Amino acid sequence: MASSSRTPKESVVVDYGRRRTPCGYCRSSRRNSISHGMWADSLTVDDYQDLLDRGWRRSGCFLYKPEMERTCCPSYTIRLKASNFDPSKEQLRVSRRMQRFLDGTLDVKKVDVLEDTSTSTKSENLSRPMTEESLPAGNEEEDEVGKSLHCLSSQIDNVIHILIEKGEFHSGIQLPKASVKKVSQGRRKLLVNGSEDLLYSSNIAFQIASSIKRAQSCEKVGNDLKPSKVCEKESESSPKIIAEKLVAPLDPMVKISGLSIRACNGHINFYASSEKISPSRSDQNVPVRNKSRMEHGTGGNRLIGPEHCQVKRRKLEIRLNRSSFDPEEFALYKRYQLKVHNDKPHTVTETSYCRFLVDTPLLRVSHTGDNRVPHCGFGSFHQQYLIDGQLVAVGVIDILPNCLSSKYLFWDPDFAFLSLGKYSALKEIGWVKENQVHCPSLQYYYLGYYIHSCNKMRYKAAYRPSELLCPLRYQWVPFNLARPLLDRKPYAVLSDFSILKNGESSLPQMTDDVMGRELDDAGQEDANDVPMLADEEMVESESEFSEDEPDPETTSYDDPEIGDVSKVLLGVKGSKVIYKDLRSVFDPEQRSYLESQLQRYRRVVGTVLSERMVYSIG
């Protein structure tokens, strides 16, 4: 039965059929990537949710689904139940690294140097650079103390050089390097009362005094100095006097880091300060932490404390905006594509950007005050990450009734050390967990496609415990059960995992810890550089559509109702009509062709959607 012109709350699609394109994963020059494509004039969030659960994805307004038995790189939809997320050690390090960067305690220069060194030596697999964040989690506190000691020693050396320039110490004397050491708990107890807060100590004053005395002995032999002058010099070069000279200029530097400093009988001691910062330096008083922090600055090593050094603290702001063109976002996207993906400047245009990441067929659903829709509503969004007001990353996402679907992320190459791809994924998972309170149906995080045959895409399974969609029966299968099947061949009917008897002896057995490390390490450059559906979408959104091929589908599991296309909903000149009511207007040849198209369409979208979405035929 026909109806009047359609409302704006329904899905209208144009079927393009099978298409062959070059593959963005294996980089084959042949057109081995085979998928089914549709153009969506409009798409409800419920319909797109159901399409995701049948293996579809979108690039702008274009929808595509790999033909899994045919394509060179079978792509499995992967998702994670946010409430069950178990972050790996590497993912936790990413969060800590960001927090330390915001606190002003991350040694950015050291990270940059180590990453540059790693880049120059790594193979084509681009293994993860070893930074301070790569150290075992149990060693982080020791590493922090070691950095503090190194930084304090450097500060003392800087002061010594300043005093030499001022003439306080003889410029011709070879003075030793300062060394600051941690004071053990047992040693503190042996000292006088009040030493419980003693953290570090240096005996550099004694070493300097020894060097000066040796030089003075030489002067006594070579010069006829008066005894009074010699005694005066020896008095000025005592460890006690030298320590006091060093402490005076060090005191203001050390206080900034939350420590206090005193000269004690020639020793330079560093104590945990119990002071609080003054109102002039912060909006509120914050207790000083015992543990000092440090960072390399442009002028050398500097001790800093995030609670005290407000200049070094950074503010991260995350904004969720409806999908729309933003010149600042486009400028960041272009810089990202040119520097990270080595795109040619002429290929990165506003038009291609909008077609890929701004245009969306999803019909917006606003918050209605109940618990069925989150406060932001459903639809397509750009999530902006700003540090001190500077745009550093943009995540392109779809928020749907059951999930947040991550589509793409682009970021400022200058902030590569923050692993923004991983960080944004963690924030998006956190967003789902937080918004379950407002929308109980919103439970899952979709990461795009998982491609077991492509090492750079395996990192997605590191977000555990994840599930893969069976490409035949559309059942969700835990990754740990699907993996043995994928280890055998790229395409597998994942719901057949039960046929494996105890994993079979021929299949490798891995503990969760080993599996987690492997997945974290595999393709780390893409975890950082190309998180969530990148090259493949660019290739497909730019590719040409091929004519439908006459060879039949090879699927071995068909819905028995696929052949019956009588209830498929068609769109004809602005009106809706089911096929059986329109069948008589076609001649036999037209009817045969259209029915073959509708059967193929019904097969790839499913019976329910074929009767709910409008199949436009003009």
TrEMBL record:
Q: Which reaction does it catalyse?
A: an N-terminal L-alpha-aminoacyl-[protein] + L-arginyl-tRNA(Arg) = an N-terminal L-arginyl-L-aminoacyl-[protein] + tRNA(Arg) + H(+)
Query: Which is one GO molecular function term here?
Result: arginyl-tRNA--protein transferase activity
Which InterPro entries does this entry report, sorted A to Z? Acyl_CoA_acyltransferase, Arg-tRNA-P_Trfase_1_euk, N-end_Aminoacyl_Trfase, N-end_Aminoacyl_Trfase_C, N-end_Aminoacyl_Trfase_N
Keyword Transferase tagged: yes
Compositional bias ranges of the Polar residues kind = 117-128
Locate the N-end aminoacyl transferase N-terminal domain: which residues? 22-91
Annotated region Disordered: the residues are 117-141, 279-304, 536-561
One Pfam family for this entry, by name?
Answer: ATE_N
**What are the UniProt keywords, alphabetically?**
Acyltransferase, Transferase, Ubl conjugation pathway
EC number(s) of the enzyme? 2.3.2.8
Identify the residues that the record assigns to the N-end rule aminoacyl transferase C-terminal domain, covering every copy. 328-470
Q: Which PANTHER family match?
A: ARGININE-TRNA-PROTEIN TRANSFERASE 1, ARGINYL-TRNA--PROTEIN TRANSFERASE 1
Q: Give the UniProt family note.
A: Belongs to the R-transferase family.
Q: What does this protein do?
A: Involved in the post-translational conjugation of arginine to the N-terminal aspartate or glutamate of a protein. This arginylation is required for degradation of the protein via the ubiquitin pathway.
The protein's name: Arginyl-tRNA--protein transferase
Q: Which organism is it from?
A: Flemingia macrophylla
